[in-house]
Amino acid sequence: MKKIIITSLFLFAGLYLLAQPVPAEDENIPYLMTFGPKAETSWGDDDFSQTFFFVIPEEHTSPIFIRVFDPDVGGEIDEINGFWDTKISYSIYGGTGAFENEDAKGIDPVGEYRSGNMLATKVFGENPRYDNNWYTFGPFNPTEGELVKKYGGYIFKMICEGVEGDDGNMYRYFVSTSPTQNIRIEGANAFAYEYSFRMHNDPNEVSHIYPYIDDRTISVEQKNFDWDSDGMIRVVSVARQGLLCKASGDDVWAQNQFKILDEEIGTSLDFQFIKRKNPPVKNNNVVISVKNQYGELLPFYTIPIGGVPTYKYSIGVKKKND
Amino acid sequence: MKKIKHIGFFILLLGFFLPLKAQDYSISQLPFNTDKYDEFAPVYFRGDLVFCSNRKNSIFLTFLDEREDLPLYDLYRVEEGRNEWGKPEVFDKAFKSNFNVGPASFNSTGSEIYFTRNININKKIGNSIDRHNNLGIYFSKFSRYRGGWSQPTPFKYNSPDYSVAHPSLSEDGQSLYFVSDMEGGYGGTDIYVCKLEGSNWGQPQNLGPQINTEENEFFPFIHSSGRLYFSSDGHEGLGRLDIFYSEKINGEWHKPIGMDPPVNSRYNDFGLIIDAFQKSGLYSSDRSRMSDDIYSFAPLYPMFENINKMQENDHCYVFYEEGAQSLDSTTFEYQWVFSDGTKINGEEVEHCFESEGDYTIELNVIDEITGDVYFNQATYQLTIENIEQVYINAPDTVMVGQEVKFDGRQTNLKDFEIARYYWDFGDGRKTGGIEATHIYTAPGSYIVQLGVVSKPDRQGNSEKQGVYKNIVVIGQGKDRRRSD
After folding, report:
1. pLDDT tens, B334-345?
2. DSSP label at B313?
3. Which residues on B lie below 8 Å from A273 (Cβ)?
4. Nearest by CB to A316, which of B321, B352, B370?
5. What are the strands, taking DSSP E only, across B211-328?
6. Could you tell me the domains of chain B?
7. What ipTM does this complex have?
8. Is the Cβ of B349 closer than 8 Å to some Cβ of chain A?
9. pTM (2 decimals)?
10. Is A152 in contact with A142 (CB distance < 8 Å)?
11. Backbone angles phi and psi of A200, in degrees to 5
12. Which residues of B touch A238 (CB under 8 A)?
């Protein structure tokens, strides 16, 4: 199960943020990805479910809309497996437990992961009307979400799941103040505990995700699925020039642990997905999650807390003969 | 036939301006000089001084130069007292004649004299421009038994066809240096040497083109160390006649080195003698522009205490990316760009800068995975200063006979305005100036010292700083200077 949250970030770095497309520009991820439940996991989706959390700042009182781009399964963008026979559901939850329920914060669609009040749901099959087009959920009163003081706002949960078939659904979200346009919400953000997404076909494109490292984090374990050995995964931070992580092959998991540096506390890591140049791999889908030393999942913020982490080079000089 | 211009030098050359150089000697005009007459070519004699002069020595009879209406030259002796000089007297009546009697040289005990005189003394009088009365060298021996000097004996190589003059006898009495315009020289007057073969002087040997030039060389003085001092207007100097010295290395004379100012000047400077330690001495000059006078000189070499060994300026540094974690397993290539124009690729690089100064170092990063190049990811401003010390810029190892340049320009002393530089080459020779040239004549390890003295403060106090440096002189090989 994949979960994404949109959250206000007043509790974090005091950044002036706007709600944004999911995936966001800095992530350079073309599409989120969810397959029909009959697809082989070797297509890249380990559990045919993805959860996002959106948090609307408490101060925001006007209606919001959750828009989905290309929600259907068919057409140019999605990935066909034989013929189009897949149905995908989008369900939006709010109210008590939508986020705070522990099952909601997991990476697998088990237990009460559909916790909270279902505010809206819709199933899409092959539907040219929404192919390469937007579908809008809402309006929602921000207070319909679950108020979580830690995040400074109301949390809405969006679960995208494969219902039937074996095709791949490629889509994006946008939390907007308008039902027909993508208008950002000031102070909002989004995060997920597990990310399932489609890679670029262009080998020169590098995708990013940005897990946030809180002060409880001593070490982390990254775990990725079905990377198809398509290049490498590199971690960059404000203090880390580039740590290569284990990347998975086809239909398998790969993971490794590494220690967190003091300078990385309170910042985001930049997981870079760098495709190999030759031979190029197309339509590659990957799943990734990051846990701390307690096994707690770390959120991937679509707007990285503290900004996109950039390693700060520093020149050291010493006398040759010292 | 070339003629020696004789013992009075009235060469009227246009003066020219000279670059200023540190005054490394104190000079003093001796008090017995006269304004009207010449005094020159002093030699040591039994604790006294013998010199040439055309001063009037009698109110009744003085032979005059026909052309200039001046008395002829004679040898005079003056007593050097503890604090003052005595009154010059005619050296000895035995040598007095109605002709010019000129520069002399004594053996080490003062019992033998070689002196210059007109050859033909049968003429009524002689003068310096008499083309038919050349100069010759004469020898006389002092006899305690007789209580006087013997009748002068002409030098074997005196000739009516050329002049032979300005004798200088080596301390061991085995070599007689002199000047002559005899045929076969390099031009003007040359310096020759005769070796004593039994009781006779061997054939004159020209000292060769390293010493003799197309112009004139005069007044040789062979020091007990073997160093030859002489005057020349053919070697590069400060103007007109200057005083030079040279020594034999591997049997050959090295390139003559001029004496520093104020001994040498843009006027005629000649007839130098120097003490056994080659520190102080006497010489002649017409810089007063009235007549030739005798000057004394002494080195102005102060004592330098607390001399430290010089440290070499190290402008070599190692550059690295100081934030890189060892756990990083990815590969980035670094390109280091130095403002002196150097570019070096590498994770950790070494670079030596030519000199002190301000430099900028930029780090370009090449992502070997993506191929992206990130320019100027970090910048470092590096200021390199020389060690605060007196600095001797000179090679560590040199060859015997090699002309070695010593340079003190890289001295870096804060709040210390240098007034004078003092070099001690460790072989007993010293000089001054911000730079100096020296030739070692024997192999060995030498300690070269450079001391500097600051300009005096308002109270007139000066500070001194100094360093020393070891220099190894290798004896093998030829005179490299000559082979260059």
Report:
1. 999 999 999 999
2. P
3. none
4. B321
5. 217-222, 228-232, 242-246, 248-249, 252-253, 257-258, 269-274, 281-285, 293-299, 308-309, 316-321
6. 25-299 (2.115.10.20), 314-384 (2.60.40.10), 387-483 (2.60.40.10)
7. 0.74
8. no
9. 0.56
10. no
11. -65, 150
12. none
